C-alpha cells in the first residue's frame, strides 16, 4: 500500500510535469503535514521554491499546479493560501478505505523499503573490565531502538559493539592481577565484574603513584601485543568476564541479543596496513615524532591546522587509528552502506576527524554514509552529570534496579488504593516491564542531542509523555475487548469503517501517519519523533473514547469503532516494540 504522502507526491509530480514540462517531473513538491488542522491535512510548499526558476509569483505558480492536479479521489478541492501554499484536506471516504486496507496488514500500512541497505549500528561499545555505568544507558537504548526501526523498515542491520578491550588499561589491570591475585588469571570461577572493577580502580591508583608498577603495566601491554600466551590468557579471562556481565544487563534491559562483540582488539592486526595505506596516499606527515594526518576545518588557537595522530611517538596506535581501521573494514569487508554511531556528543570531533580521513583515504565514498548520531548527557536532579554520592558514575545495574523498585512501590500503592489483589508474580512482572520501559522511554522521548534530567518520579508518572501513560492507553484498549468479550483478531477484513465524528476523523488520520513518522526516523535517526507520535495517538484515542461510545453504540457504528480501537492498540504495540518496549495486557 502506498502512503498518502507518497500518492500525493506522485500526483503533484504529474501536475508539475503537465504545467511546466517534463523537466519538472522529479521536483520535490515539499509536502508537509499541515501545522493547523483548520487549513487541512497536508500543505505543499513547492510553488514558493520555484519562483526564481520560473520567474513567476508563487500564487500564480500554485494556480497552474492546482489546475492540473488530479487528487479528487484523495482530497477535497485543493486551496491556495497565503503567499502560495497549496492546502489539502483528505476526503472521509478515502480515509475509510485506507483504514480498511491497513486493518488486515500486520505492518499497518508501513511498506518495506524499496532500497534495502546493509546498515551497521555501532553500540553500546562499553569499555571492558569496567562495569557498565550511566554513560552506557543512552547508547544501549538509542542503538537498540534505531536498529529495531531500521530492521523493521527492511534494512539488513548489523549491531556491532566496538568494545574498548585493548591498550594501556589492560596492561595496568593484568599487571595488577599478576601481582595481587595471580589465581584470578587462571580461572574466573570466583570472580565477577564487580571484583574486576574494583581491581581496575586499585590498579589505576598504583599506576598513577608507582613508577615501577607503571613499567610493569607497559610491559604487560607489550607482551599482550606480542601475543605472549600467559598475558593473552589473562586478557581473555577479563574479556569473558566482562561480556558475561554485559549480557545479563542487556537481557534485563530487553536489548536485542544479536549484538556482535567486535572490540578494538579485533582491529589490532590491521593497524599497520592502515598506516601503510595512508602513507601510500601521501597523507601521513611526521609531526614531533608522531605520524599524523592533517585535517581541514580543525585548527588550534593560533589558527594552524590540527593533526590527527594515528601513530604515537613510541610506535603505539590509538583510538583514532582503530576507528580508521574499523571504517575501512566496515566498507570493504562488511560491505556496509550506512554506518551509524550513537555515541555521546563529546566525541563529535573525534568522529568528524576520522570520517574526514576516511574520505581522504577513499574508504568512505559517495555510496556509503557514515553518521555520528550524538546524544547529550544524563543529568541528576541537581542539573549536574548523574553521579553517586561518592562522586562516581552510577552503575547501570543500580539505575535499572532503582526504576524497577520505584515502579513496584507505585504499583503496590495503586493496588491498595483500588482494593485489588494480585499475585507476587504479576507484581514482579509488571514492575519490571514498567520500570525498564520508563527508563527507555524517558531517554528516547527527549531530542537525542539534548541533555536530560533523570528522575524516577517523572518517568514513572501515569500522566504525561511517559511509558506508563502509553502502556496504560494500550491496557485500556485491551480492557474494551475484555469487557465486550470481543476478539479483535476476529473483527474481519470486511468490517465497514465509518468516520462520522470529529474525534474519529482525527484519530483515523493519525493512525494513517505511522509510515511517515517511521520514514522520518529512518532518515534523521531521532526516536523522539516516534515517541511524540505515540503520545499524540494515545491522546487522540482518549478523546475519541471519551466522545464516542464503543460497546454501547449500534451497528454498524459499533464495529467501525471497535476497528478503531483495535488499530490504535496494534499501532501502540508496534510503535512501542520499535522503541524496545513491551506492552502489558493489564497493569
Ligand atoms: N568505547 C567507547 C567509549 O566508551 C565508545 C566507542 C564508540 N564507538 C566507536 N567506534 N568509537 O567511549
Please provide a brief summary of the model.
The protein is an alpha/beta fold and 587 residues long.
Describe the model.
This protein is α/β, with parallel strands linked by helices. Among the domains are: 4-90, Arginyl tRNA synthetase N-terminal domain (Gyrase A, domain 2); 168-257, no CATH class. Helix content is 51%, strand content 10%. It is built from 21 helices and 14 strands. The protein has helices at 4-20, 46-49, 51-54, 58-68, 92-103, 137-153, 168-180, 193-209, 211-225, 229-253, 271-280, 319-332, 348-360, 396-418, 424-444, 456-459, 467-483, 502-511, 514-524, 528-547, 557-579; strands at 31-33, 42-44, 79-81, 85-88, 118-122, 156-161, 259-261, 285-287, 290-299, 305-311, 338-341, 369-372, 378-379, 452-453. The protein has a five-stranded parallel β-sheet, with helices on both faces. Strands 1-2-4-3 form a four-stranded antiparallel β-sheet. The longest helix is centred in the middle third of the chain and has 25 residues, at 229-253. The two termini are 35 Å apart. The chain binds arginine. Residues 122, 125-127, 162, 164, 323, 326, 341, 343 line the site of arginine.
Amino acid at each position: 500500500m502506498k502512503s498518502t504522502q507518497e500518492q500525493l507526491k506522485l500526483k503533484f509530480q504529474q501536475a508539475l510535469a503537465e504545467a511546466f514540462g517534463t523537466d519538472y517531473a522529479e521536483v520535490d513538491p515539499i509536502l508537509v503535514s499541515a501545522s493547523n488542522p483548520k487549513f487541512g491535512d497536508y500543505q505543499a510548499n513547492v510553488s514558493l521554491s520555484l519562483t526564481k526558476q520560473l520567474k513567476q509569483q508563487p500564487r500564480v505558480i500554485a494556480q497552474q499546479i492546482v489546475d492540473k492536479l488530479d487528487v479528487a479521489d484523495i482530497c477535497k478541492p485543493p486551496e491556495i493560501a497565503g503567499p502560495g501554499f497549496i492546502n489539502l484536506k483528505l476526503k472521509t471516504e478515502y480515509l475509510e478505505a485506507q483504514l480498511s486496507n491497513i486493518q488486515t496488514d500486520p505492518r499497518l500500512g508501513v511498506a518495506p523499503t524499496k532500497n534495502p541497505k546493509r546498515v551497521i549500528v555501532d553500540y553500546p561499545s562499553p569499555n571492558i573490565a569496567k562495569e557498565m555505568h550511566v554513560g552506557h544507558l543512552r547508547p544501549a537504548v538509542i542503538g537498540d531502538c534505531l536498529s529495531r526501526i531500521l530492521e523493521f523498515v527492511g534494512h539488513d542491520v548489523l549491531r556491532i559493539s566496538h568494545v574498548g578491550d585493548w591498550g594501556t588499561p589492560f596492561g595496568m589491570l593484568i599487571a595488577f592481577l599478576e601481582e595481587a591475585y595471580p589465581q584470578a588469571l587462571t580461572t574466573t570461577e570466583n570472580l565477577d565484574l564487580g571484583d574486576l572493577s574494583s581491581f581496575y580502580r586499585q590498579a589505576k591508583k598504583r599506576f598513577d603513584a608507582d613508577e615501577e608498577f607503571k613499567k610493569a603495566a607497559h610491559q604487560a601491554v607489550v607482551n599482550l601485543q606480542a601475543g605472549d600466551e600467559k598475558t593473552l590468557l589473562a586478557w581473555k579471562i577479563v574479556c569473558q568476564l566482562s561480556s558475561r556481565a554485559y549480557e545479563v544487563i542487556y537481557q534485563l534491559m530487553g536489548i536485542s541479543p544479536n549484538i556482535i562483540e567486535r572490540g578494538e582488539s579485533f582491529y589490532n592486526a590491521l593497524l599497520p596496513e592502515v598506516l601503510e595505506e595512508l602513507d601510500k596516499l601521501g597523507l601521513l606527515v611526521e609531526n614531533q615524532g608522531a605520524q599524523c594526518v592533517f585535517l581541514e576545518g580543525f585548527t588550534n588557537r593560533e589558527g594552524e591546522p590540527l593533526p590527527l595522530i594515528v601513530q604515537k611517538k613510541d610506535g603505539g596506535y590509538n583510538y583514532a587509528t582503530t576507528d580508521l581501521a574499523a571504517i575501512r573494514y566496515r566498507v570493504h569487508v562488511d560491505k556496509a552502506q550506512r554506518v551509524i554511531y550513537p555515541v555521546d556528543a563529546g566525541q563529535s570531533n573525534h568522529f568528524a576527524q576520522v570520517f574526514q580521513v576516511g574520505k581522504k583515504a577513499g574508504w568512505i565514498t559517495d555510496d556509503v554514509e557514515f553518521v555520528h548520531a550524538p546524544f547529550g548527557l544524563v543529568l541528576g536532579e541537581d542539573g549536574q552529570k548523574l553521579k553517586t554520592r561518592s562522586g562516581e558514575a552510577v552503575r547501570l545495574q543500580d539505575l535499572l534496579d532503582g526504576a524497577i523498585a520505584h515502579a513496584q512501590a507505585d504499583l503496590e500503592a495503586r493496588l491498595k488504593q483500588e482494593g485489588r489483589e494480585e499475585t507476587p508474580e504479576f507484581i514482579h512482572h509488571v514492575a519490571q516491564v514498567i520500570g525498564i520501559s520508563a527508563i527507555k522511554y524517558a531517554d528516547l522521548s527527549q531530542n537525542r542531542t539534548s541533555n536530560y534530567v533523570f528522575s524516577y518520579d517523572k518517568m514513572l508518572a501515569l500522566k504525561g509523555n511517559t511509558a506508563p501513560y502509553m502502556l496504560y492507553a494500550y491496557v485500556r484498549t485491551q480492557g474494551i475487548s475484555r469487557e465486550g468479550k470481543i476478539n479483535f483478531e476476529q473483527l474481519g477484513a470486511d468490517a465497514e469503517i465509518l468516520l462520522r465524528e470529529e474525534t474519529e476523523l482525527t484519530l483515523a488520520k493519525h493512525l494513517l501517519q505511522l509510515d511517515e513518522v517511521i520514514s522520518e526516523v529512518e532518515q534523521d535517526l531521532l526516536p523522539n519523533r516516534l515517541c511524540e507520535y505515540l503520545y499524540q495517538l494515545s491522546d487522540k484515542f482518549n478523546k475519541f473514547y471519551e466522545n464516542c461510545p464503543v460497546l454501547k453504540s449500534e451497528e454498524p457504528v459499533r464495529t467501525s469503532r471497535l476497528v478503531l480501537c483495535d488499530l490504535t492498540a496494534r499501532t501502540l504495540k508496534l510503535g512501542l516494540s520499535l522503541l524496545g518496549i513491551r506492552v502489558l495486557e493489564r497493569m
